[in-house]
Amino acid sequence: MPRKRSSKKPETEKASSTIIYRKDPALNYSRILASCSAQAYKRSVIATSETGKELRFEVKARDVTALMASTNSILRRLQVIEATRMQERHQQ
């Protein structure tokens, strides 16, 4: 006999994480914020915010695998910023 499916809406927040990144005042972060906010995932949501000194990424997901995927997506973007910053320092 097949199992009945619940009519409840599936939980969208079983796992969550917050990434706080200290900003470099010389850089403009509007593109990274736009690219993270523009991502539409089936099992996770990324909310971004910016203050004078930091970027904040709030990740909420249905499961740990989706949380890891969204978190890695953010970390890859931040890694590019860090690598660019290091190259600029070495060129000076």
Task: Kindly report how far apart the N and C termini lie.
Answer: 71 Å
CATH topology (level 3) name = TATA-Binding Protein
In terms of DSSP E residues, the strand content is 25-35%
Sequence of strands across the biggest β-sheet: 1-3-2
Mean pLDDT: 80
Domains, number: 1
Q: Enumerate how many helices there are, as a single number.
A: 2
Shape: elongated
Count every beta strand, where a strand is a DSSP E run of 2 or more residues. 3
Low-confidence parts: none
> Approximately how much helix is present in the residues?
25-40%
Structure description:
With 92 residues, the protein is α+β, with helices and mostly antiparallel strands. The chain has one domain: TATA-Binding Protein. The chain is 39% helix and 25% strand. The protein contains two helices and three strands; from the N terminus they run βαββα. It has a three-stranded antiparallel sheet, covered by helices on one side. Strand 2 (44-50) and strand 3 (54-61) form a beta hairpin. The radius of gyration is 17 Å and the shape is elongated. The protein starts with 14 loop residues before the first strand and ends with a helix.
Explain briefly what this protein structure is.
The protein has 92 residues and is an alpha+beta fold. It has two helices and three strands; from the N terminus they run E-H-E-E-H.
